Amino acid sequence: LSRVRESDLAAFAHQDLPFDRLVEAVNPARSTAHHPLFQVMLVLQNNARGDAGFPGVEVVEEPFRTGMAKFDLTFILSESSSPGGEPAGIEGGLEYAADLFDHGTAVSLAERLTRVLEAVAADPGVSVSGVDVLSEEERRTLEGFNDTGVVLPELTVAGVFEGHVRRAPDAVAVVFGGERVTYGEL
User: What does the angle CA 65 – CA 68 – CA 72 come to, to the nearest 5 degrees?
Assistant: First the structure.
């Protein structure tokens, strides 16, 4: 705890560092394909809602969307509250780069994050390994992919290699520079 405390206090000394200055100091390799520092962002809006306070005027929040994702994935969470100001949960949204993710994949990522948050909220003392990220359906699908019930012949790597030598002794096995060695030669 002391080490974490010292690390956090040292980091707080730099909390007001402008993002542009950070990018300048790190000087990452630039690419038009992705953001220079990170590709996934988690945003938590937990500030109190402002009140425009114009007498006689009703102000309604209108979301503005550009239709383009700034990052590969952006998870946007915001605390909601009741009209009396009591906490009423967390609402969330997801922006994603459509050229990298299809809608179904993006939805499944959001569902997995939801499962993690629900598990941690239900039991704050749960270890990371104790949080089940996958749904039952996803787990069954993975078990089907990883079904090892197939009976395989008991061969060693050397035995497989020898079998290939017998089947195709003249096939090229190794290429280095301009030199080629066949399975028979090897």
Answer: 120
Q: Which residues contact 52 (CB under 8 A, 6 or more apart)?
A: 59
φ and ψ at residue 67, rounded to 5 degrees: 85, 5
In whole angstroms, give the CA distance from residue 46 to residue 40. Answer: 19
Per-residue model confidence as pLDDT tens digits over 114-142: 999 899 999 999 998 999 999 999 999 98
**pTM (global) more than 0.70:** no
What is the C-alpha separation between 93 and 70, in angstroms, rounded? 14
Enumerate the β-bridge partners of residue 93. 76
42-64 burial code (b ≥16 CB/10 A, e <16): eeeeeeeeeeeeeeeeeeeeeee
175 DSSP β-pair partners = 180
Q: For the segment 86-95, what is each residue's pLDDT rounded down to a tens digit?
A: 888 888 889 9
